[in-house]
Amino acid sequence: MILKVSLADQLLELNVPDQLLAQAEDFFARMDADMDQGWQVNREWFDLPDLPLRGQIVADKLLTALENEDHKLGRLMAGYICSRFPDIELLELSEQGEVRDHVLNMKTGESLQSSSPALSFSHAGLPGGLTEGEAMMQTDQDVSQVFKRGKQYLFTVHNHASGQREESPAFGNEQDAEEARMQAYRERYQALMTAARVH
């Protein structure tokens, strides 16, 4: 099987022999078993990566193998993708270093990318007319501290429109969760200050 890969305006054709697919099936099964235990993807932790995300994780390993000219690893990663996505037409590798930017294009015309949530919170229904100090106090109330649940770290942000608290994605370590919390904190504060100017 030929796996077509686009990378930096180049089109690569990686030859993945059927014999390799058969011989490496145990290796592919071990990869699946590893991902069944959960996986850190950039700053987010996923308890059970879905199939498109697994394809993107392996695509990222393939990108690393190509950059390092590690032909053995590259062939195995290409083999995994051919094995799990037999209808793949083109694998688009992103050089940006974001796992979820890799795209698996199928012969059916479908493009597979993980549908797992990104970090985004609604700023609808925010109170207006707040001073800077009041906006800071409101942000303190809206964005919780990072807390641990099981092996994961997360935080919540108050949705003023629904009256509910929205959970962040789960993170594999406290530092990443804290960085994401600070990003959410800054965004909420900015949104409150914008609402203050509008009212």
Description:
The protein starts with a strand and ends with a helix. The protein is elongated, with a radius of gyration of 21 Å. Helix content is 43%, strand content 22%. By secondary structure, it is α+β, with helices and mostly antiparallel strands. A hairpin with a 4-residue loop joins strand 10 and strand 11 (164-167). The mean pLDDT is 89. It has a 5-stranded mixed beta sheet with strand order 2-1-5-6-7, covered by helices on one side. The protein has a two-stranded antiparallel sheet with strand order 3-4.
How do the helices and strands line up, and which of them pair or pack?
Elements lengths: L1 E6 L2 E6 L2 H6 L1 H12 L2 E3 L2 E3 L4 H17 L3 H14 L3 E5 L10 E4 L4 E2 L19 H11 L4 E3 L2 E3 L1 E4 L4 E4 L6 H25 L1
Parallel strand pairs: 1-5
Antiparallel strand pairs: 1-2, 3-4, 5-6, 6-7, 8-9, 10-11
Which features does this protein show?
about 200 residues; alpha+beta; 11 strands
Flag low-confidence runs: none
The total of beta strands comes to 11
Shape: elongated
Count, helices:
6
Distance, first to last CA: 61 Å
Residue-averaged pLDDT = 89
Hey, roughly how much beta strand do the residues contain?
15-25%
**Percent range for helical residues?**
40-55%
User: What sequence of helices (H) and strands (E) makes up the elements?
Assistant: EEHHEEHHEEEHEEEEH
Q: What is the CA-based Rg, rounded?
A: 21 Å
> Which structural class fits the helix and strand makeup?
alpha+beta
Biggest sheet overview: 5 strands, mixed
Strand arrangement, largest sheet? 2-1-5-6-7
